[in-house]
Design goal:
Layout (H helix, E strand, L loop, with lengths): L18 H16 L3 E10 L2 E9 L9 H16 L12 E6 L10 H5 L5 E6 L4 E9 L3 E6 L16 E4 L3 E6 L10
Parallel strand pairs: 2-3
Antiparallel strand pairs: 1-2, 4-5, 4-8, 5-6, 6-7
Helix pairs in contact: 1-2
Organism: Nesterenkonia cremea
Pfam families: DUF150_C, RimP_N
Keywords: Cytoplasm, Ribosome biogenesis
Length: 188
């Protein structure tokens, strides 16, 4: 018996949890890429009597957010693909709901590109040695990130101060997610 040839998809493809998702992703990805987006995840999952087809997209680089018009346009294109060439893949899924969205603000950051997309934001980080810190993400490379840890405020309402930037190896980070910040402005 010959050895099965490895799939051409990169190992990063935990993005698609099963063979059918990967098949649909292959059909949908060109439309995603045409709009300058990156396909983060594609998943078919039962939702009551129907099936939800989740398509999660984002920009691969930069900090710009995907706008609703772009999501609507993509949603339309994906619908056409699903009605057309993806029909065979979905033949035993009579009813499905298509959800096209961007990753939630609180999704875990796991890949170098996730960090690059969030430079400037405040992150909650847990390191492999169990340390937890809240830090401003100053920069990100393929191997590491540069962060300025927040100092505990001496008194409530005092301006937040940061320690000097330090570099953290991505392998030393157990979890990292964006901390949603609410900017409050002083009344004039």
């Amino acid at each position: 018996m010959g050895v099965m040839s490895a799939s051409p998809r990169p190992a990063d493809d935990r993005r698609f949890p099963d063979a059918r998702s990967a098949e649909l992703a292959e059909l949908v990805e060109p439309a995603v890429n045409r709009l300058g987006l990156f396909l983060e995840e594609l998943e078919l999952r039962p939702a009551g009597h129907r099936t939800a087809l989740r398509v999660v997209v984002d920009y691969a680089e930069g900090s710009e957010q995907v706008d609703l018009d772009t999501l609507a346009e993509l949603s339309e294109e994906v619908s056409e693909i699903l009605d057309g060439e993806a029909g065979a893949t979905l033949k035993d899924v009579p009813e499905y709901d298509l959800e096209v969205s961007t990753p939630g603000a609180t999704r875990p950051l796991t890949l170098p590109r996730h960090f690059r997309r969030n430079v400037g934001r405040l992150l909650e980080i847990t390191t492999a040695d169990g340390r937890q810190l809240v830090a401003r993400l100053e920069g990100a490379s393929e191997q590491s990130i540069t962060v300025s840890e927040q100092k505990p405020a001496p008194k409530k309402g005092m301006p937040v101060k940061y320690k000097d930037p330090v570099e953290l190896d991505l392998t030393s980070i157990t979890t990292a997610r964006v901390q949603v910040e609410f900017s409050h402005t002083e009344d004039d």
